[in-house]
Amino acid sequence: MSGNRVRLLAVGLIAALVATGCTNTRQDVNVLSVAQTLIDARKSERQEATEIDERIVQAQVKKALQSERGPLALIRFEKTKSVAILRQIETNGAYRTWSTWGTIERRSISTRDGVITATRGLGSDLMSSDISGLLHMLTRLEDGIAQQTLRHLDGENIIAETVADCAFTPDRRETFTSGDLRLHATRIDVFCKTEEGSFSNVYLVNGSGRIVMSRQWLGDGIGYATIKALR
Amino acid sequence: MIRKRKVIGAIAICAAAAGPVVVFADTLKTTLTNNYGNPGALIDMPTAESAPDGQLSTTIMHFDGFTKTTLSFQITDRLSGSFRYAATRGLAPGFDVFYDRSFDLKFRVFNETDWTPAVSVGLRDFIGTGILAGEYVVATKSVGPRLRLTGGVGWGRLGSYASDGSIGTRTPFSFAGVGTGGNLNVDDWFQGDYAFFGGASYQISDKFSLSAEYSSDNYDIAQNANITTRRSPWNVALDYQLRDDITLRAFGQHGEEIGALVTFSLNPRNATVPGGTELAPLPVAVRPAGSAQDLGWTTQPSSTERITAGVDTSLDQAGLDLEGIKLDGRSAHVSIRNDRYDATSEALGRTLRSLSRELPASVEELHVTLIRNGIPASTMSFSRTDLERLEHAPAREALAVARFTDTLRFGDYPDPRAGIYPRFEWSVGPYLRTSLFDPDNPIRADLGARARGKYHLGSGWVVSGSVGQKIVGNLDEVTRPNNSQLPRVRSDVSRYNRTDEPFLENLTVAKFGRLGPDVYGRVTGGYLERMYAGVSGEVLWKPVNSRFALGAEVNYAQPRDFEQQFGLRSRSTPGGTIPEFSGHVSAYYEIGNGFHGQVDAGRYLAGDWGGTLTLDREFANGWKVGAFATFTDASAQQFGEGSFDKGIRIIVPLSWILGQPTTQKAEATLRPLTRDGGQRLEVDERLYETIRGSHQPDIAKSWGKYWR
């Protein structure tokens, strides 16, 4: 990404100008932390994302199901190939906020009825979404069109809205197995067009209208993520 | 069957999208720059193309004996500006290398349409010596996605080859007539001989592009000095996009010369990681229905301490400091210090999130006072119900219900908790000091170490100091004789740079205070900056929701010893006596559309009276690119080379680079020349920039980070 490269170029110069060696304040940026950023950025440019062994994932899922009583979910990010087990940490009306289970690092996502509406701490976060139309379509299990809005922060920290027109196509029924869940669900393919491009989401909805799996596009930065309920 | 249904869905979408889609007329954007560093794909000749809005580029061009380094900025979508430093070997009598600074402007008057070209008007070297001066009207039209054709008419240098006619008269350039430079020769613009020029550029692939031009610049001055020969008006160039931010070019010029060019570019609007990579905030805790009626906690004697401790810990984890807290059954008021988040909205959002988790359910009204240098800068109020209701809503809905009040108007604010003051802050780190554009050596620098300390005593009292030690550098090699005709208030800088001993940068006692609603005050005394000691007093009027502010500052200053220890030196200098008093009245205005203006009028350090005009393009992420010019009653003759003080400044928020919130910024001020006219005292923490970030207009700009 061009941003990273621009950063590499600029970091050294600006670090020398303003960064401090050590300090007791919150405001100063340490020379070492700037250098670290430089190295990390270099590394991440070279490193290829590697797939995590599915057996390890399943073993962790099992462990989480045994130790945790509340709602759990599994999330996969296609770009980074990273996987995380999520546990619900807060609810606000129809919204649930989830955080990674088993780590103390605070990165979170929010969902509404099983669909991701926001992320935090992932970089290029999805700030909020309007998915009322989408949820309405998913429960009807019919062909149709609805709008969806995704909001991100742009490079200036200003909210940029992506409005997508989405076509819903209910597909075959399939068996869904995930954690403690084993059920039949209808697959719904959703093709969305924005001003700049398009994306294809997939949802699995069971007989009682619960969205048990969602593969959705979360923006240019994060790309696609799939969230599955584990219980 | 299934497939067919999918296709139908997709078609339906296309039909639905066709209505509102705006067909964006390509306004001829380019990230290429020409040999003058201006946005454009040709070689010496201008085009009507523009860089993407906000684009900042540095272009270094060299061919035998000629070097130009240009900083260009796309000020608005249509307007671009450039600052150039040109070095030419053997150009002028008496100079081995002739160095020259110049400024350009280019404005796109008409956008390209399907049938008509984009048209731009530009001025080259309109405020310098005039060696490169030329004006033009140019049209560029794209033909398909790869080919762009340009034709135009130029005056000055751009009308010097195969002139087709003449309009009015133009003062011919002569080195004798350069004088002090820096004049706006408005009378000469678009006057004299004119000539037509043209060219074409072709995008061969993603990486390569080719351009050719017919140049109307005869290089008269250089040809007269016998340093170049122009055999042909045709120039060609091949560009290679090495990376997104670096372009290389090889060009052939005049049928004689081969040259090279490199362009580094970046755009403040493209952050490393949009939105940052900082960890997630706490989720808002929603109160169970009916729980808000429970006031039982107010009767428990220890509950306030327990709640305070909880809020303190929670804010500390968010990187914020709790200065004070006031609780009653239905409302809570906290005062916080934000030294971490450059977007104040994010500090406020995280504070409220913490409060939602720590405060008893009966507390409905939440107030947050932002403390700056020990004084309240603003109070933001947000109802807890709204906080719960809007957590997952678009950020603009939260902005609509957030109320900002001047803390003194709001009424009381919490006293600092025990142990908050006194507070000592320190930091140790490197420093870099540069000297640019000295003809003997255009880039000089010192690298050293600096230790800073700040002692906050509370109630706005702050003692701060900074000491430094040069480690390596060549700033002490400056040997230009000082011929200033004004009191030497800044031109003796090289003597300050000669010390190899530890030096005291500053050591001051400052008192910040609130003089009344909307009014702020500051008095700073001591060793104010490396060249002056004295007392500086300032008053600022800035309503919390206003984009407009007024200020006044009066300074009493004595010049410091060149060694920058504790001693002072005499105020009399060869150019005159340095006056004791200087000061200004200032007006600040956030114009909108990303522009900010400032006007200062008053008495400058050398006793000259006048005004400074500053205009900044301010990006919501904290980037600022601006220019300033000071006009005083010191004549161009007295001022010397450059005629008046002017420059460019760039502020880069470190968060933009790191992707992590930090209030640290890198600031660079680029002056073509620093002389004695139009100079001001450099006092730390002037009120406007100290206070402004806590006020509604500034917070609203990056409000998107409120829920981040």
Strand arrangement within the widest β-sheet of chain B reads 19-20-21-22-23-24-25-28-29-30-31-32-33
CATH fourth-tier homologous superfamily of the domain at 56-266 in chain B: monomeric porin ompg
| Assigned CATH class of the domain at 56-266 in chain B | Mainly Beta
How large is the radius of gyration of chain A? 20 Å
Give the biggest sheet of chain B.
13 strands, antiparallel
Structural class of chain B: mainly beta
Task: Describe the overall structure.
- The complex is a heterodimer of chains A (231) and B (708).
- With 231 residues, chain A is α+β, with helices and mostly antiparallel strands.
- Chain A folds into 2 domains: 45 residues, no CATH class; 176 residues, YmcC-like fold (Beta Barrel).
- Helices cover 24% and strands 46% of the residues of chain A.
- Chain A is built from 4 helices and 13 strands.
- Chain A has a 12-stranded antiparallel β-sheet with strand order 6-5-4-3-2-13-12-11-10-9-8-7, with helices on both faces.
- In chain A, a hairpin with a 7-residue loop joins strand 4 and strand 5.
- In chain A, helix 1 packs antiparallel against helix 2.
- Chain B is mainly β.
- Among the domains of chain B are: 211 residues, monomeric porin ompg (Porin), CATH 2.40.160; 117 residues, GMP Synthetase, Chain A, domain 3 (2-Layer Sandwich), CATH 3.30.300.
- Helices cover 13% and strands 43% of the residues of chain B.
- Chain B contains 12 helices and 33 strands.
- In chain B, strands 19-20-21-22-23-24-25-28-29-30-31-32-33 form a 13-stranded antiparallel β-sheet.
- The radius of gyration of chain B is 29 Å and the shape is globular.
- The two termini of chain B are 45 Å apart.
- Strand 1 of chain A pairs antiparallel with strand 19 of chain B, so a sheet runs across the interface.
Question: What is this structure's SSE topology?
Answer:
The complex is a heterodimer of chains A (231) and B (708).
Chain A: H1 2-18, E1 22-23, H2 31-46, H3 54-67, E2 72-77, E3 82-92, E4 95-100, E5 108-112, E6 115-120, E7 126-130, H4 132-140, E8 144-153, E9 159-178, E10 181-193, E11 198-206, E12 211-217, E13 224-229
Antiparallel strand pairs in A: 2-3, 2-13, 3-4, 4-5, 5-6, 7-8, 8-9, 9-10, 10-11, 11-12, 12-13
Chain B: H1 2-18, E1 56-63, E2 66-74, E3 79-89, E4 97-110, E5 118-124, E6 134-143, E7 147-156, E8 165-167, E9 192-203, E10 208-214, H2 220-224, E11 234-243, E12 246-253, E13 257-266, H3 303-317, E14 321-327, E15 331-337, H4 344-358, E16 365-372, E17 375-383, H5 384-390, H6 395-401, E18 403-405, H7 407-410, E19 423-438, E20 441-458, E21 461-473, H8 493-496, E22 503-516, E23 519-527, E24 532-541, E25 548-559, E26 572-573, E27 576-577, E28 581-592, E29 595-603, E30 609-618, E31 624-632, H9 636-639, E32 645-653, H10 654-658, E33 665-670, H11 687-692, H12 696-701
Parallel strand pairs in B: 15-16
Antiparallel strand pairs in B: 1-2, 1-13, 2-3, 3-4, 4-5, 5-6, 6-7, 7-9, 8-9, 9-10, 10-11, 11-12, 12-13, 14-15, 16-17, 17-18, 19-20, 20-21, 21-22, 22-23, 23-24, 24-25, 25-28, 26-27, 28-29, 29-30, 30-31, 31-32, 32-33
Helix pairs in contact in B: 3-4
